[in-house]
């Protein structure tokens, strides 16, 4: 490539990156400015003073902590369950090369590609008719319960996870497993003690990806939870948006607080997240 | 432990997907007894419901923008980043940032840009003192305003997928093409692009699926109301709304199911072929 063309590419990328970061930086800028000042001088004006007050107000007015805890109760169990179940099935698919394992794998993957709304109607009926003991769900049924939300998140993410983990496990040399069998290892030992540790990179990538996806999920709680108090934080954004009313500074501060966990993952675990995304698309 | 995921998948995903078809021929609601109504629901959506055809049109526009703008943009970013220029990692991280944010959050971040009274965009357009363009409310433009938000995220998603594909292309292949006198564009068009066929199919599938799944952005903006009707939002409103019109919502669901089978089958064919080769 000629130096001149590489300069053009470089400049183009700088412009794109600047344009791309602008919306986020704008939110940050607004969030740190006092309302009186933006009211007086307009949003697009030089700052005269900066404040943390918007963050404090957004935190208390929106009961943000409460919704964060809700998100935690949904995300952690859902991620752990998804990884356990999908790795077990992936192990079987990868190890026992029966004729039906490929169709099985494909059915799983295809299910994960369906838009959620396609199967919402029967799901809504099921959720309303399946009863649960009250110690598990205070609504007495799957509908409007945190438990139900965990179940649907697990069900929906399983397909993709099985697909990725099965593909990854196929790359683990069969000789390792054969050696284990010779040493008298049972199926459980082969799965838990031998295969899973070898899959650590894939599991780390999946864990990161699932955490972000489930934390970011907006739709399931909206459709299957009727008590606003039980919403995870992402779905609660819809109500918070109304509560912060037309105060854009407060809205920006609230948005950044909700984005904070994602941004931490973005800064620390971005590599795993990207690995998870691309494992599904390029792994042979 | 192997049976659980199978059962869960059948009970909560594929079972309901098939049950949607059955329910679409009924008048099911939240409680009352269910009656067969034949194809009445389909007549209603095609001929009576004023939201249906706008929704189909909006979904089609969404797909068009993704295919013609967001996806090529993401590919372009990937190709440029793959050249390993200075600071590539930083640019990549920046463009990738929106992919990690939830769509609901993206809707809010853009709202403070689009806002009528003193928003960034309206001020830049010279309406800083009020009377600006109502980007998210005006039904003749709000779809395009939301599509800017969607593209902001989608381009980064495509970029990452494509970049991983590009990285997997054998360097020797590119070198030999260069030795044979191919220029940058020819190398990409005749050597790199064909090798990336599997990744291209994945990206196409992701593009179509994401445009059918579009929901969060329009919902956080105006609940999928005027100017922003989408099939997915209509289904949600019908089923979870006050009437719980499950039968009618199912008919809409079947429409969405039939459309989404196209990319899903394309993906499955691709995967089957890959398995056969290996």
TrEMBL record, chain A:
<feature type="transmembrane region" description="Helical">
    <location>
        <begin position="250"/>
        <end position="269"/>
    </location>
</feature>
<feature type="transmembrane region" description="Helical">
    <location>
        <begin position="147"/>
        <end position="168"/>
    </location>
</feature>
<keyword id="KW-0813">Transport</keyword>
<comment type="similarity">
    <text>Belongs to the binding-protein-dependent transport system permease family.</text>
</comment>
<dbReference type="InterPro" id="IPR035906">
    <property type="entry name" value="MetI-like_sf"/>
</dbReference>
<dbReference type="InterPro" id="IPR000515">
    <property type="entry name" value="MetI-like"/>
</dbReference>
<feature type="transmembrane region" description="Helical">
    <location>
        <begin position="12"/>
        <end position="32"/>
    </location>
</feature>
<keyword id="KW-0812">Transmembrane</keyword>
<feature type="transmembrane region" description="Helical">
    <location>
        <begin position="202"/>
        <end position="225"/>
    </location>
</feature>
<keyword id="KW-1133">Transmembrane helix</keyword>
<protein>
    <submittedName>
        <fullName>Carbohydrate ABC transporter membrane protein 2, CUT1 family (TC 3.A.1.1.-)</fullName>
    </submittedName>
</protein>
<dbReference type="GO" id="GO:0005886">
    <property type="term" value="C:plasma membrane"/>
</dbReference>
<feature type="domain" description="ABC transmembrane type-1">
    <location>
        <begin position="68"/>
        <end position="269"/>
    </location>
</feature>
<keyword id="KW-0472">Membrane</keyword>
<dbReference type="GO" id="GO:0055085">
    <property type="term" value="P:transmembrane transport"/>
</dbReference>
<dbReference type="Pfam" id="PF00528">
    <property type="entry name" value="BPD_transp_1"/>
</dbReference>
<keyword id="KW-1003">Cell membrane</keyword>
<feature type="transmembrane region" description="Helical">
    <location>
        <begin position="72"/>
        <end position="92"/>
    </location>
</feature>
<feature type="transmembrane region" description="Helical">
    <location>
        <begin position="104"/>
        <end position="127"/>
    </location>
</feature>
From TrEMBL, chain B:
<dbReference type="GO" id="GO:0005886">
    <property type="term" value="C:plasma membrane"/>
</dbReference>
<comment type="similarity">
    <text>Belongs to the binding-protein-dependent transport system permease family.</text>
</comment>
<feature type="domain" description="ABC transmembrane type-1">
    <location>
        <begin position="56"/>
        <end position="267"/>
    </location>
</feature>
<dbReference type="InterPro" id="IPR035906">
    <property type="entry name" value="MetI-like_sf"/>
</dbReference>
<keyword id="KW-1003">Cell membrane</keyword>
<feature type="transmembrane region" description="Helical">
    <location>
        <begin position="60"/>
        <end position="81"/>
    </location>
</feature>
<keyword id="KW-0813">Transport</keyword>
<keyword id="KW-0472">Membrane</keyword>
<protein>
    <submittedName>
        <fullName>Multiple sugar transport system permease protein</fullName>
    </submittedName>
</protein>
<dbReference type="InterPro" id="IPR000515">
    <property type="entry name" value="MetI-like"/>
</dbReference>
<keyword id="KW-1133">Transmembrane helix</keyword>
<feature type="transmembrane region" description="Helical">
    <location>
        <begin position="188"/>
        <end position="209"/>
    </location>
</feature>
<keyword id="KW-0762">Sugar transport</keyword>
<feature type="transmembrane region" description="Helical">
    <location>
        <begin position="93"/>
        <end position="113"/>
    </location>
</feature>
<feature type="transmembrane region" description="Helical">
    <location>
        <begin position="247"/>
        <end position="269"/>
    </location>
</feature>
<dbReference type="GO" id="GO:0055085">
    <property type="term" value="P:transmembrane transport"/>
</dbReference>
<keyword id="KW-0812">Transmembrane</keyword>
<dbReference type="InterPro" id="IPR050809">
    <property type="entry name" value="UgpAE/MalFG_permease"/>
</dbReference>
<dbReference type="Pfam" id="PF00528">
    <property type="entry name" value="BPD_transp_1"/>
</dbReference>
């Amino acid at each position: 490539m000629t130096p001149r063309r590489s300069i053009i590419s470089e400049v183009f990328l700088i412009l794109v990156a600047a344009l791309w970061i602008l919306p986020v930086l704008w939110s940050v800028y607004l969030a740190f400015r006092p309302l009186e000042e933006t009211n007086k001088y307009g949003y697009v004006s030089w700052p005269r003073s900066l404040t943390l007050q918007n963050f404090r107000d957004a935190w208390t007015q929106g009961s943000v902590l409460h919704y964060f805890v809700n998100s935690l109760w949904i995300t952690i169990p859902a991620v752990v369950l998804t990884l356990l179940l999908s790795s077990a099935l992936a192990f079987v698919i990868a190890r026992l090369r029966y004729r039906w394992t490929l169709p099985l794998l494909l059915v799983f993957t295809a299910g994960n590609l369906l838009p959620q709304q396609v199967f919402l109607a029967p799901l809504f009926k099921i959720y309303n008719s399946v009863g649960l003991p009250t110690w598990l769900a205070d609504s007495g049924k799957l509908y409007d319960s945190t438990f139900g939300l965990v179940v649907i998140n697990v069900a929906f993410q399983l397909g993709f996870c099985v697909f990725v983990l099965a593909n990854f496990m196929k790359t683990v040399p069969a000789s390792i497993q054969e050696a284990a069998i010779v040493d008298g290892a049972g199926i459980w030992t082969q799965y838990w003690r031998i295969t899973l540790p070898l899959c650590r990179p894939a599991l780390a990538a999946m864990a990161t990806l699932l955490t972000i996806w489930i934390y970011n999920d907006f739709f399931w709680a909206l459709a299957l939870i009727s008590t606003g108090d039980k919403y995870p934080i992402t779905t609660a954004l819809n109500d918070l948006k109304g509560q912060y009313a037309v105060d854009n500074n407060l809205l920006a501060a609230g948005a950044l607080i909700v984005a904070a966990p994602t941004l931490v993952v973005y800064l620390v675990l971005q590599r795993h997240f990207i690995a998870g995304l691309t494992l599904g698309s390029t792994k042979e | 432990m192997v049976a659980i995921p199978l059962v869960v998948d059948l009970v909560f995903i594929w079972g309901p997907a098939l049950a949607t078809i059955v329910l679409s021929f009924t008048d099911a609601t939240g409680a009352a007894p269910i009656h067969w109504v034949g194809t009445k629901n389909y007549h209603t959506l095609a001929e009576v419901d004023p939201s249906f055809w706008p929704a189909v049109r909006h979904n089609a526009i969404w797909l068009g923008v993704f295919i013609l703008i967001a996806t090529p943009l993401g590919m372009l970013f990937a190709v440029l980043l793959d050249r390993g220029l200075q600071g590539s990692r930083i640019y990549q991280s920046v463009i990738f940032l929106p992919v990690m944010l939830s769509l609901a959050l993206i809707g809010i971040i853009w709202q403070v840009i689009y806002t009528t009274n003193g928003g960034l965009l309206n001020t830049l357009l010279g309406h800083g003192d009020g009377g600006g363009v109502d980007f998210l409310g005006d039904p003749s433009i709000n779809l395009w305003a939301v599509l800017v938000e969607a593209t902001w995220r989608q381009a980064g998603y495509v970029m990452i997928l494509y970049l991983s594909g590009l990285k997997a292309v054998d360097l020797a292949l590119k070198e030999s093409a260069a030795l044979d006198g191919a220029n940058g564009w020819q190398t990409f068009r005749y050597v790199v692009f064909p090798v990336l066929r599997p990744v291209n199919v994945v990206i196409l599938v992701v593009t179509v699926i994401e445009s059918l799944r579009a929901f969060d952005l329009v919902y956080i903006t105006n609940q999928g109301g005027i100017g922003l009707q989408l099939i997915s939002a209509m289904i949600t409103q019908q089923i979870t709304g006050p009437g719980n019109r499950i039968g009618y919502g199912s008919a809409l669901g079947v429409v969405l199911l039939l459309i989404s089978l196209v990319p899903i089958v394309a993906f499955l064919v691709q995967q089957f072929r890959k398995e056969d080769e290996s």
